Amino acid sequence: MTRIAPIVLIIYVATISVAAQSEENKKQVVNKDFPTLEKQKIILDCDLGGDIDDAFAVAMMLSAQDQFDILGICLDYGDTEARGRIALRMLYETGMDHIPVYLGRKTNHGVSAQFEYGRGFDVLMPQEQGAAEFIVASLNAYPGEIILFTVGP
To answer: How far is CA 65 from CA 60, 71, 100, 112, 151, in A?
Structure first.
């Protein structure tokens, strides 16, 4: 078994569990006696594809869509295009491809074994707007309403 196989397996299992959780959320009935609360607007800024913490952050965020209005996932540090392909594939595999992905500035050509999960994936594309511009525009559009989760460096 190669070194990449366990990492890809963990990402795959996390992705499948998110898909199952989202199907379960669709089945929940809203209690008509209580008003529904507005979902919390969030943006996740991470360096997905380095350590496994970012994949878990994405999975946790996706599994809580009944509580969160996910405005976007931003990828930063290193090869942001490779990181973006991982995020896009995770979203595609979980049926969450409505969530936009924004790329930050590429800072180096570092390679991670986790990049294999996204290699060649071109079914979805990241947004044209850069990650930093998206974050600034969103914070200006919704002052005081967004939680910015920063898991990246």
So the answer is: 9, 11, 14, 29, 18
